[in-house]
Write a structure and sequence with these properties.
Layout: H1 4-22, H2 26-41, E1 51-53, H3 65-73, E2 78-85, E3 88-94, E4 100-102, E5 108-110, E6 117-118, E7 125-129, E8 132-133, E9 139-140, H4 146-150, E10 162-167, E11 188-191, E12 195-196
Parallel strand pairs: 1-2, 1-7, 7-10, 10-11
Antiparallel strand pairs: 2-3, 3-6, 4-5, 8-9, 11-12
Helix pairs in contact: 2-3
The structure holds the ligand Nc1nc2c(c(=O)[nH]1)N(C=O)[C@@H](CNc1ccc(C(=O)N[C@@H](CCC(=O)O)C(=O)O)cc1)CN2 and adenosine-5'-triphosphate (ATP).
The ligand Nc1nc2c(c(=O)[nH]1)N(C=O)[C@@H](CNc1ccc(C(=O)N[C@@H](CCC(=O)O)C(=O)O)cc1)CN2 binds near residues 61, 89 and 143.
Length: about 210
């Protein structure tokens, strides 16, 4: 990023949105993660997906551990999660037996195993973490550019893999988020309250 004003602006929005989600109580967090899992598992997306990219949640992000467990045990899906090394992120297959550790950011990861790594082109659906999103489905991430770089090959919406942002409802930013040329385009966003698709006029969740 070369524009210091834009970097500062994105930093300010990131701080505000991160603080919103850390203010959620444990009960709100627990309700949100089970609502999200229920919505995703009950959706039509599940019928046509075999290989799913997900991530182990950290610090205030909507919880993904029960979702991952259900995808593996009940839905019998193949689940791949990010393993970061340097500037790279690889998607590695996990199951209930996979040994887990904490990476340099304090995020849960499987022990690196090159034999379990998949080319992200072969994922059907990728659930993308985000700090914020807006009504046009622009995404603000943690600022590492990992998802932008990993999915730069994708030609845009409608091309595989389907990129689904997942988030707490409070991560929807009321104003348009600043965008940069390399930002990936999300195909949809799912929160604990609602689904968002491109072009949908909806601004508020229907509870
Ligand atoms: N749960 C989860 N896993 C994920 C991501 C994510 O957003 N959420 N990522 C999405 O890209 C990748 C990791 N990206 C990251 C990018 C920046 C920071 C970061 O700057 N964290 C601290 C500083 C940590 C430190 O270096 O001490 C910070 O927020 O200040 C963390 C992770 C891969 N795995
Ligand atoms: N396709 C790309 N190729 C090379 N560098 C990239 C690419 N996409 C993003 N970057 C770099 O990554 C950095 C962070 O980008 P940005 O602030 O948009 O991250 P983010 O989307 O918030 O993070 P993340 O994707 O990790 O959640 C930028 O400085 C940018 O130069």
């Amino acid at each position: 990023m070369h524009d210091p004003t834009l970097a500062e602006y994105k930093g300010r929005i990131r701080r505000e949105l991160k603080s919103r989600r850390t203010q959620l109580t444990d009960q709100q967090q627990a309700n949100a993660e089970s609502a999200l899992a229920q919505k995703l598992l009950g959706s039509l997306f599940m019928m046509s997906t075999k290989r799913i990219g997900l991530y182990f949640s950290c610090k205030g992000e909507i919880g993904t551990f029960p979702l991952i467990q259900k995808l593996l045990l009940d839905a019998k899906k193949q689940v791949f999660v990010p393993v970061v090394s340097g500037e790279r992120m690889r998607f590695q297959k996990v199951d209930e037996q996979t040994p887990l550790l904490l990476n340099r950011y304090g995020i849960t990861e499987p022990e690196p195993d090159p034999l379990k790594v998949i080319n992200p082109r072969f994922l059907d659906l990728v659930c993308v973490p985000l700090v914020g999103f807006d009504a046009d489905l622009n995404r603000l991430g943690m600022g590492g550019g990992f998802y932008d770089r990993t999915f730069a090959f994708r030609q845009g919406r409608g091309h595989k893999p389907f990129l689904l942002g997942i988030a707490h409802q409070c991560q929807m930013y009321e104003q348009p988020l600043p965008t940069e040329s390399w930002d990936i385009k999300l195909d949809a966003v799912l929160t604990d309250k609602d689904w968002y698709f491109p072009g949908s006029e909806k601004q508020k969740p229907t509870d």
